[in-house]
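REQUEST ID: PR-0412
SUBMITTED BY: lab tech R.K.
PRIORITY: routine
TASK: structure prediction, single protein chain
INPUT:
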Amino acid sequence: MIARLFNLHFQYIVLLAAAAFLGASANAKAADPLNRASEAGNSNRGKRVVVEVAPGNWGNVETADIQLVLQSVASEFQSHVGYLPDGGMRLRVVPRGASPRVLYERGAEGEYVVHLTARNDRWYQYAYQFSHELCHILSNFDHKEGSGDSIATGNQWFEESLCETASLFTLKSLAVVWTSQPPARKWIGYAPVFAAYADRLLAETHRHLPAQQSVEQWYAENRSLLRENPYLREKNELVATALLPLFENNANLWQAIAYLNTDKSSSRKAFNDYLADWYAACPPQNQVLVRQTMDLLGLKPENVAETLTAAPPLRLAQNGN
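STATUS: complete
OUTPUT:
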C-alpha cells in the first residue's frame, strides 16, 4: 500500500512537471538564447567527455536525444570530480535488458562500454543509471586484483554505495542546472522531474536506519554481510543515503573519488586498510572525505596516518582512452 502511494505521488508530480514542460516548450521561440548557450556549453564539454549512444532498442526516442541527456549528465557529474586525463574520456552506451553496468573490457577503440536499461523518454532513469556507472569509471573501478570472476570484491560494497550516492546527487544537481540550462529547448520545464525521482527514491523505507540506531551501529552489525556480498542493493542504498549529506554540504568532496582504488592490492585488504590506501593516494585537500567516511562508520582515525604520501590518480592518468 505504501509503495503504491509513493508511485501515485510520483506520477502526480511527473504530470505536473510535464504540463509545465509542454507549456514552456509551446511558448519558446526558435531564437531562444538559452538553447544556443546550452548547445555551445555541451559542445565544449563534449571535447573532454565524449558519449556515443549505440543504436538499438531504446524505445520511442532518438539516440541523438539520449546522447544529449547523457552528455549533460557526464558534464555535470565530472564538473564536481574535477579531473579527467589529458586525452579525455570516451564512453559507448548500449541498450541491454539486464541490470545497468560498465564492462571491465574496453571497446575496440579503447572506450568504456556502458549498458543501460532505461527506455523511452524516462530521462530521469537515464540520468540515474548513467551517473552510477560514470562514478565507477571515475573511481578506477577496473583497477583491482584479479580478472573475470576472480576479481576481488570484498570492498566493492563501498564503491557500489558511493556510486548510488552519485546517482542521487546528480539527480538533484540536474534539477537545478536544467531549470535554467537544459541541453535543448525541448527540455525546458523538465527539471522538477529529476527532483521528484530523487525524492521518491529517498523516501523508500529501506534507505533509512531503524529508530535509535546510528550508522556506526548498523555498520558493525552488517559489515560481514557487506564483505561477503557487495551487491545487497538495499543495504548499499542505506549507506548511500547516509553519505549523501556529506556531498550536499560540500560538493568538492567528489574530487576524492579519482584517487579510490589506485592501489591495486587494496581490493583484497580489510576495509580499514582499503580506506587507509585511499587516504594515502589523496592530496591533503581531498583527504577530508576519507576521514568523514571513517567517522560516519565508526572507524578509528588512528587507522589513517597523518604522514602518508599523496599520489596521483593512477588509472585515469595512465589511460586516456
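NOTES: The CA atoms of residues 10 and 199 lie 9 Å apart.
REVIEWED BY: pending
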